[in-house]
Amino acid sequence: MTQPTNISELRSRAEAGDPRAQYMLAATLASSGVRDEADRWLHEAAKNGEADASYTLATRHLQTHKGAVQALSLLQGAAQRESNVAKRLLAVLYAEGLGVEADWRGAVMLVVDAARKGEIEAQREIAMLLLLANPDDADAMHLLENAANRDAIAAAVYARRSINSGLQDERTRSVIEQLGAMRYPNAAALYAAFNAASHLSAPRVENRKHAPIVWDGVLQKLTDNSPSAMPAAESLCVEPEAIVFRQAFSPEACEYIIAAAGRRLAPSQTVDPGTGASRRDAYRTSLTATLGPVDLDLALVAFNRRIARIAGNPHCNGEFLSVLHYSPGQEYKPHFDWLPPGEDFDRGGQRVTTALLYLNEDYEGGETHFLNPDIEFKGAPGDLLVFQNALADGSADKVSRHASRPVTSGVKWIASKWFRGKKYNF
Ligand code: PD2
Ligand code: ZN
Fold this sequence. Notes:
Elements: H1 7-15, H2 19-31, H3 35-47, H4 51-61, H5 68-80, H6 84-96, H7 104-116, H8 120-133, H9 138-147, H10 152-164, H11 170-181, H12 187-200, H13 215-223, E1 233-237, E2 242-245, H14 251-262, E3 266-267, E4 270-271, E5 278-279, E6 287-291, H15 298-311, E7 321-326, E8 332-335, H16 343-346, E9 351-358, E10 363-365, E11 368-371, E12 374-377, E13 384-388, E14 402-404, E15 407-410, E16 412-420
Antiparallel strand pairs: 1-2, 2-13, 3-6, 4-5, 6-7, 7-16, 8-14, 9-13, 9-16, 10-15, 11-12, 11-14
Helix pairs in contact: 1-2, 2-3, 3-4, 4-5, 5-6, 6-7, 7-8, 7-13, 8-9, 8-15, 9-10, 10-11, 10-12, 10-14, 11-12
This protein binds pyridine-2,4-dicarboxylic acid and zinc ion.
Zinc ion (ZN) binds next to loops.
């Protein structure tokens, strides 16, 4: 297909019924702010079978749980037309049970299909799922190494993996340099750890000869239902109840979460106690990336499910995972995690439990601080802290007031997940 060179040529092809031209015209109009006409062409393109248009509309429907059924049907159509991005998002809906009954096997089949057909993000999410099941999985390493050339998340996880196994080779150095060049927000930390790693352990000799991936074998490994091991619980405080689960997540999983959040960071919001509305506030100065359904992949769904399982809360009660980024001077001043009555509260009831997953360690300050009794906690990467904000009868626990102390140097990364008393309807 020849590329139309200007908007009038695009328009005449769109008017003649070319679905790709309709989609491209919609994109061009939207980027020039001509929203209504852009939307009309987008719907027309989707109606005429343009898979990218169906995908775009599906992402819009997924802004609320009420749009899940429509999103599902748009994505099913696009997946049948071999759109790999649609297959990956459809897989998330299957895995989450959005618009359809939850079906992990169906979800994995879709992503394996996309990966088999060369979709690099699908290969990377499968690599992470394989590593979750077996940290030494050879297929996972093969997939990650290939994907690291073209995918920032794969590159970051590959670099973290190499550093943590003491591998100080040229390939890892160049992967980290590429991450730096593309402004990956944790590149400097990876580079520092890479330079320090050589003093810690002898370089590993890597076997670069891999057998080709047997996709049916991968599918079987990922649909084997044996649950992952539970970390041991360590009490931090009885009232409020706070429990630490050490090394609940691997360094690779932590890096995956940082990398998935990286491009989505925006100033954090707080809930106005009077109105319940979200707003920016000086008492919470960090950046946040909130990973909603359209930002997820199966690896992130698996992390969310693991957090829920360890925290002892139903997965469907969980709000979206938020990844917080605190630079020096940034903090979350003393607060409660409960919600005031209002629209947000009505989406699933009170925030009864908070789970905090510590993602890195190269910073000073930034302790999570409980005020009464006075306890400061700083987790190592992969540690999960779970605390209760509500008493057994569901009422707010007045001693659960807590804060994130100001970071004094470096950058703190942490993932936060709030659980409601009931199913959360976004
Ligand atoms: O980043 C933290 O340590 C922190 C402390 C207190 C996060 C939250 N609260 C939160 O996300 O609610
Ligand atoms: Zn909090």
